[in-house]
Amino acid sequence: MICIHVQILLIILLWNCDCQIIPRIEECGLTCSQGIHCKSKPSSDIFNSFCHDAPASLSSMVLKGMKISTVMMCVQGSPCSLHLNIKGTVSLDENIRGLEICSLSLDTQQSQCTNVRFARKKSKMLTGKKVQVQFNCIEVNVAQHIYVTMKTVPNYCEVKLSQEYYVEDCRNSDVGKYIPVCSAGKFDYTVDRARKIISVNVSSFRHDQDYYVRLCHKWFTCEDVGAFAVIKGKKSLKSVSLKYSQLLPCLCIESWLAIPDARRIQLCPFENDTKALWDNLVYNSVTQTLAWEPACPVLVTVNLCRLMTSNDHCEDIQNSSKNSPEKVKYSRVDTHPRLCMKFTTKQGSWVKCPFAHGDFPAWKMRTAAVAERMQVSFTSQTKARFSVLVCNRTQLALCESVGMHYSVSAGWRTDVDYSVPLQICDIHCGFRGQIYSDGNPAKAMTHRMKSVHSLH
Q1: Residue 449: partners with Cβ closer than 8 Å, 6 or more residues away
Q2: Residue 398 CB coordination number (10 Å)
Q3: Whole-model pTM?
């Protein structure tokens, strides 16, 4: 029985602790196998961002086997720091002068790039040989979300390796013990999704110091999304509750000691909660623009698509693909109920159809009494033909036709007036007390109009 208890306790400890050992180095550097002399320098060649077609003789598998890990550089007399250890294999070729290795922080969108150059004479002699390149001089932060790419120099299209990587956080035993940002305090959290509250508990900090905790949205910096809470060091209760409005991928918990220039710990645990990102669609009916602006930085491809009625598949509309970390906007958009926007990331695709529920009406109808005539006016966002059927209201849901049927057309945001002979009494009987708040006519007439108009 005692053994069982010890075993269960050990399982719990291993579950709550990342005990993976992080290798230590005393200095960072670049190494190449096969006796190839190589050197590195920070990349400033913006032209290598653009790729061009590879020669027919160059294999797309010239790069392969990229692996990423974390190493800890600890120099005597200085605090330890975390670095990416990036390995990859390149087949030497006369068309390749070197490699470019880049890291992009998906939290802040900041990037670092390094050029790796091979000795020209020896690399020509060893054409076709596979050389392993190892580089570990890119410094990273605790719990950082990184996107790493390895490209050839020159940059040939389709010849690239890429991989996402998560740097260990303070729960790792080595990181928690040797990285200064973790020694200021440790915290865990629970999320009450129903009440939209994150409860944060802080431990392992000096009890004569106060501690600050807040929620923030991480862009280039962590932008405040509410007042910070103070945990009093002398009080026994070391937890606070913080309210949030949306669980977003960039929502982070930040904490720091209440001392000058204190280093801050950031934990961003909601990186997979991307659902709310696709809701921020805005349509401007005056300019006919449909725009989406992300609440967090995200690598995404956006397409307009047409929702098919047969299988709910959304078919991409040609030449509508856009990539932007900030804002996507489409002009002259037809507010059709099956017109949707598709968002695609490495995690999957999401489709939003902003016009499906009539939130943005494609056309409006207004009426006005002029002498003994009724003037019907249409404003349409799309080219359309409207049929007008004149009728007398007999019951709430019934309108008896008086035999007059008219057809009018409306162009882009053009008012078309059409006068219909009708007694004044009929206007009051048909429309009394049933005007839309935005000035649209009675619901009965509007619903009737919707059933007979057609879009070209």
Answers
A1: 365, 386, 388
A2: 10
A3: 0.45
